[in-house]
Write a structure and sequence with these properties.
This protein is an alpha/beta fold. 40% of the residues lie in helices and 11% in strands.
């Protein structure tokens, strides 16, 4: 194989030159040394457990780490940018890698952000900060119709399916979740033994393909659903309406990744490309949606039930709220997925041009629930490029109760963003089903990195909150986050996004909401 070519060549050279050195001339010992050195290095690469790239690419993989060492000097020329074209405050991958490895993440010489650029944001520190709480707070998920609520961590593993991710990647994520006491979303690919074996808490996501609870015709199977929902590891059930990186279309798993195990977990034919439908067969209107959520909660024996959505318009969210009011049924949680969220494969134009960014989507859902008087019944999760403590705090300020991370968790298990997810040739064993590549991902080492990353990031969020004079997330308000506008004036989120009063939409919608409230129809998904 090409990835072992360097090691094989060095080993062959060593074997070939040894007889010449022993029998012909001692000068050949120089050639033996030249070949033996990379042979020994390659042997060590195969045996060590910390670096997946080196296990999959012995000898030649060191080129990657050599380039990584000069990366800080290159960052000023190759700066990643977010969906608004603004540079990140620091290289997110570096922060995640440092925290996952337990490395000190202090940065000398201060910030390199352009603090005078339009769109620059800052959190308001307090002149009288408080002590950091000894234990991270948790969020009780479970409304009035939920009999088995769950206490969610401030940062959890976001939805990534078996098939998209390898067995070892899932084992590492779930083991990390078990060690750190946070939740692991299964993604829409069903529940596998790799989700269950480590013992981490699961949020079982049900997508349009109903994988793991589908009939032969692809419809929802209530009996299969009830059986799996009864598993002790399953703590919450999430209905996926849309995903931030590809709203409006279903997921795709290439045929090369659909092996016998994945086919059995999903209930699909082996070796065929799996394309999830773009819509749910079980419901077609907001009213039918909330009824289906109530049915899911009943089948799950009272466990928390919610849905994930990348909002497209305020009227659609209000239509769902109207349906909740009409049916007197509310989900226990809503996960808002921003359009900047990641995916293993999606059409570029969908990723770039459809759906609301997380800031607008999150605030829309939060304000809609406040305005309809439902906010105290529903918890909100935020997902979409959440990676650092400041990300968590900002999303809590905007209305979230907790956050989920996918891309950052992948970094913690070794992803280097090779962008080969769809090829089945992931160099780190994270997004491939090739057993030879998967074996290089050492579950024990990477699970510890996942747990360390989550713990350090939540601690960072708590330290930031303490510096703002806040002991609990409930103390955060939109006044504490400011953004510079085009007129070079800073305005708080309380000024930029004015919420309706609790229950105001049902009584007399304010002018800014009146048109959308009028268009919102509980019997159809208004565009």
């Amino acid at each position: 194989m090409k990835r072992f070519a360097g090691l094989a060549s060095a080993a062959a050279g060593t074997v070939a030159f040894l007889p010449l050195a022993a029998l012909v001339s001692p000068w050949w010992w120089f050639a033996v040394g030249v070949c033996a050195a990379p042979t020994l290095v390659g042997g060590y690469d195969l045996l060590q457990r910390r670096h997946t790239v080196l296990r999959n690419y012995p000898v030649i993989g060191h080129l990657r780490y050599g380039l990584e060492s000069v990366r800080p000097q290159l960052q000023q020329y190759f700066v990643e940018r977010d969906y608004d074209g603004r540079p990140y405050d620091r290289d997110t991958r570096t922060i995640v890698y440092e925290r996952a490895k337990g490395v000190d993440a202090e940065d000398p010489f201060g910030s390199e952000r352009d603090m005078y650029a339009r769109g620059y944001e800052y959190l308001v520190p307090s002149i009288s900060p408080v002590d950091v709480p000894e234990r991270p707070p948790r969020v009780r998920v479970g409304g009035p119709d939920c009999t088995r609520p769950y206490d969610m961590a401030l940062l959890n593993v976001s939805a990534m399916s078996f098939g998209s991710l390898s067995s070892n990647a899932l084992l590492a994520l779930n083991s990390g979740a078990a060690q750190g006491g946070f939740a692991h979303d299964t993604g829409e690919g069903g529940i596998s033994e790799h989700h269950l074996r480590p013992g981490g808490d699961l949020v079982w996501e049900i997508g349009t393909g109903y994988f793991g609870c589908r009939t032969r015709d692809g419809d929802f199977d209530p009996e299969q659903f009830a059986d799996k929902a009864a598993l002790p590891a399953v703590r919450c059930l999430s209905l996926k309406l849309s995903q931030g990186a590809k709203p409006g279309i279903g997921g795709v798993l290439p045929a090369g990744k659909v092996n016998a195990e994945i086919a059995a977990v999903r209930g699909v034919p082996e070796g065929r490309t799996v394309v999830s439908p773009p819509y749910h067969r079980a419901f077609a209107t907001p009213r039918e949606l909330v009824r289906f959520l109530a049915r899911m909660r009943e089948l799950a024996d009272g466990k928390p039930v919610g849905f994930k959505v990348c909002p497209g318009s305020r009227a659609q969210i209000l239509a769902v709220c109207k349906a909740m009011l009409a049916e007197e049924v509310t989900p226990d949680f809503i996960v808002v997925d921003g359009a900047e969220g990641g995916t293993g494969a999606a059409p570029l134009e969908f990723a770039d041009h459809l759906g609301m960014p997380l800031t607008e989507g999150l605030i829309t859902v939060h304000h809609a629930l406040v305005g309809t008087g439902l906010r105290d019944r529903v918890r909100i999760g935020a997902s979409g490029k959440v990676a650092t403590g400041s990300d968590i705090v900002k999303r809590l300020v905007m209305g979230a109760d907790y956050t989920n991370a996918a891309r950052a968790m992948m970094f913690a298990v070794g992803c280097i963003q090779a962008q080969a997810c769809h090829t089945n040739r992931c160099p780190t064993g994270v997004t491939t089903q090739d057993p030879r590549r998967v074996r290089a991902l050492h579950v024990g080492d990477k699970s510890e990195r996942v747990a360390r990353y989550q713990q350090a990031t939540v601690e960072s969020a708590l330290q930031i909150m303490a510096a703002m004079g806040v002991r609990e997330p409930a103390g955060l308000t939109p006044h504490m986050l400011l953004r510079r506008g085009g007129d070079a004036v800073f305005r708080s989120y309380a000024e930029l996004y004015v919420p309706p009063e609790p229950g105001e939409l049902c009584a007399q919608p304010p002018e800014a909401w009146a048109a959308d409230w009028e268009r919102a129809d509980p019997d159809r998904f208004t565009v």
